[in-house]
Design brief:
- This protein has about 250 residues and is of the alpha+beta class.
- The protein has a 4-stranded antiparallel β-sheet with strand order 1-2-4-3, with no helix packed on it.
- A hairpin with a 7-residue loop joins β1 and β2.
- The two termini are about 25 Å apart.
């Protein structure tokens, strides 16, 4: 399990604390400890805290914490059949289906519809790009494939949190505003918090421009930087993002 690397990056002992706070709620804490017995933090444990051993790791959690559904969209392409269930859920609602097709058409105007087909009772996703017959999704281009994967998770699974790795991967820079616009609309409508990783300056600028055009500026940039041997993060709001873009200051 990857948990063994969280406390002090693989050290023999140590503690790693994850803290999340939501509006109107008490902070929720998760502590991963390699120390034996009761961890050093905090000095007084609140009621409901418990530990469950996982090999050499002891996760300490709040029993009353709310479980949040999380989906992760990897930079590696899913196999087409692995996307079928999420896609089927995404197009079951006419509103979700219309939103997905509208987004895809804004990226590639040739796209008319995206449907499920089957051969020998094996379902697969097909795309109408104006030819005499629909083509399998795998033949519709890397960008469209990537977008169907992202929006199948958002619209189909409707998680509370969605992590998207290298969101710009396979998508032409000119299509990034449309992609961000679609993500912003879906996330706001379905109350999904999206964490997107990118190394693309164009992707960051596109995201800023899209959120700046909306009623609420719901974009934040978590900038990572090295401090000694540690990596720290700071959250940048709209003023900081605009200043960085105006000054051509790289954000990673």
């Amino acid at each position: 399990m990857f948990y063994r690397w969280l406390p002090k990056d693989g050290s023999k002992d140590g503690e790693t604390r994850l803290l999340a706070t939501t509006a109107g709620a008490e902070p929720r804490n998760l502590l991963l400890a390699k120390t034996a017995g009761k961890p050093a933090w905090p000095a007084e444990w609140p009621e409901g805290m418990s530990s469950t051993a996982r090999g050499s790791i002891q996760p300490w959690i709040v029993k009353a914490a709310t479980s949040l559904d999380l989906r992760a969209v990897s930079v590696q392409h899913k196999a087409p059949d692995a996307m079928v269930d999420g896609f089927a859920e995404a197009v079951r609602s006419p509103r979700d289906e219309e939103q997905m097709e509208s987004l895809l058409a804004s990226v590639d105007p040739r796209i008319r519809t995206v449907r499920l087909d089957s051969v020998n009772s094996k379902p697969f996703i097909v795309v109408d790009v104006g030819l005499g017959t629909r083509v399998p999704l795998s033949q519709a281009g890397q960008g469209i494939y990537r977008l169907v994967a992202i929006f199948s998770d958002l619209l189909g699974h409707k998680p509370k949190i969605c992590c998207i790795d290298e969101i710009e991967n396979g998508i032409h820079y000119s299509a990034l505003p449309s992609v961000w616009r679609g993500i912003a609309e879906v996330a706001a409508r379905l109350d999904i918090q999206v964490f997107a990783n990118t190394h693309s300056w164009e992707c960051l600028v596109a995201a800023h421009e899209v959120f700046a055009s909306r009623d609420a500026y719901d974009l934040r940039v978590v900038q990572l930087y090295r401090l000694g041997e540690a990596i720290e993060g700071r959250v940048l709001d709209r003023d900081h993002i605009e200043a960085a873009i105006a000054g051509d200051i790289e954000l990673r």
